[in-house]
Amino acid sequence: MPVGLFRVCLLVITAIVNHPLFFPKENGTVPENTEEIIQKMKEREESLRLEQMRLEQEIADQEATQKALEKAAVVVEESKEEKVRWDMWTALSMVIFLLIELWRQDFQEGNWQDIGGEEDDMAVLGKAFKGVAFPDKAVLASFYEKRILGTTGDMARMREMVEGFADDLLEALRSVCNRDADMEVEDCMGVGSMYENWRVRKPFVCDLIVPFAPPEPYCFRCQTWCSGDSFPPDEQGYGTIKVCRADEDETGCICDKTKLGEDMLCLLHSQVNTTRPNSEMEDLLCFKNTQYLDADQVMKWFQIAVTKAWNRISHKYEFDLSFSLLDSPGALKIKFKSGKSIAFNLTPVVQYENSDVYFISHFPRSSLEADIPSSTHWFLTFAVYERRFIQLVSKTLPASACHVSCLQILSFLHGKQCSLTGPSGLTNYHLKTVLLHLLQARPSQDWAPEKLEARLQDMLKFLEKCLHEKKLYHFFIGNGKVPAELGFPIIFQSAEPLNLFRPFVLRRDVYRKTVDTFHEMLRNMSALINEYTVHIPLAHTNGIRKESL
């Protein structure tokens, strides 16, 4: 029985397992499963293909980045090599530049201002000199004797008269000034052409400078364009003057560096009285709200003081004294009852340290020079050293040397030409500077009296060259060959050379006018000299006429 039940159960179980409702036939579902699998396989293949492309792109990007890095490394390496080469060239260029600069300085010391060649080398004169007839020695000697030499005695008498009167006037000025509050005036000094014996054109004018100093306890502290601080090019040749207390430190007031007592106040920085410093500085002729000396206020004070002094001594003289020129505050004129007059300039100056260089309040100016930067900028004059240099060199020259004669003739010709065609940028100071350069460059024997014609040609050559280059250096500034006997300040010797013709670069109209006037003077030179020459031998006169034709 149990066996039978077991068989029956086994049969039932077998039937149930093989029933189609529980296990469908495989051939009925195969097509549907195959398409689904194929679709999934395609999707998988597509994703794998995209993944492969992404990986290939990343690999390509990595390879490109690697190549770029390698290329950049090569460029950096090349740039380093190039930089090393460039640094070598830069260093080499700097060495070459320094060598050139040293050579330039040596060249300037050895040949301060380039001087013309031989006496008879007319090739360097340029086109302006072609066809120009130079007067010969006899004509020049006659012209100098008849026209110029006779004025020497007149100059000596005029200098003596003016100096005596100026001394008396300054003595009276000291008596009318307050010694405790006003500036202290020293003795006057004569400078310029009248005292160097080369002025030729009338009216004769004596130039006198009057040093002055502040009252105690004040002092002047001077600063020039070459003292270390940077000055613009248009302020070269100028300086400023600061009014300080004698016990004040150069860098500031002593109240900042010392402890003042409870009952002591600083006059410059008092918090109680803020108006006194300004008025005090103005009483000391300073520019408003500064400690810098004002040239305009100085000239105003000087004119008032001179007027007071003249009122005190006018009863002693039989002439009148007046200020003659508005644009030149120190210009004075003596008028005699006969109608004659004598003009002279009395100009206050400030001494630069312990030298004979002076800051001058007002200086005669030409059309070439620019306006003064401000009234606190003072022009420096080296007139005392210029006079001493001429005197020193004159002792080494032959008797009756022609150096002064050359300057007198050239000054006369230029003055006459300017009276015909109008003023130019050239001044007598430029002509004197040319002579100073030639005096230093040429040996003493070249200035013998019989070489007047050759030296005059040298001056014209040199002047024409300077005009062509727009470059004429100041004789003293930057000149390392100034004789030690003069005691010239080293600060100006070591400074950069100062080009007196620099304004020609900025003023083309004035430059053109100056060159035209110079060329016209050359063409008219023989005619101007012949006009003022009498009793010349007939042979010389005929020769000059043939040359001019």
TrEMBL record:
One of its GO terms (cellular component) is nuclear outer membrane. It is found in: Cell membrane; Nucleus outer membrane. Pfam families: Mab-21_C. Residues 38-72 form a coiled coil. Residues 1-20 form the signal peptide. Keywords: Cell membrane, Coiled coil, Glycoprotein, Membrane, Nucleus, Signal, Transmembrane, Transmembrane helix. This is Inositol 1,4,5-trisphosphate receptor-interacting protein.
